[in-house]
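Work Package 3 (structural annotation) set out to generate three-dimensional models for the target panel prioritized at the project kickoff. During this period the team completed the workflow that converts sequence records into discrete structure tokens, so that structures can be stored uniformly alongside our sequence database. As a representative example, we reproduce one entry of 177 residues exactly as it appears in the project archive.
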Amino acid sequence: MKTNRALTWVVCLLAFPVAARAGEALRLQEVFPAGYQYHVSCRVELAGNLTLPAAKNQTATKSLPVTGSSAIEYDERVLAADTGGPVERTLRLYRRIDFRRKIGDRPQESTIRPAVRRLVLLRHKNQEVPFSPDGPLMWAEIDLVRTDVFTPALAGLLPDKDVKSGEGCPAGKAAIQ
């Protein structure tokens, strides 16, 4: 009981300075200069139904069960970026990239071959153009990389000015695209 009470006081004392500054404006910012490195790890589980439109001259729709999972894990380094501007080129090393889903009774799987999991991504007009210095990519592998989020583009979701608690802030157009 005494331990819980002491822990409560410690939490309150630590939180008080933060609460006192709640009215102050803050700036959240993440920059991606050349040489910056980060790790991405994402897991997804999905389940639901896909409703198909009614066939010609019929009124009944058909529903297919959809299940799936994905796992993505990679390390990435910014190779080139404009000063204070968008990232132009990154080096990405996939540790894992597995997509599995089943629509109705049809399983689907997608991955990138281990031999070409080291990729350079060129960013051009809000699109990623991947290539591997270790060998040619297949079209399915290129599509798989293009569907993944280009992490440096998310920096535009944060405001470019100080913001007070409760204030809204519009996201940058490039980050939304």
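Residues 2-20 form the longest helix (19 residues).
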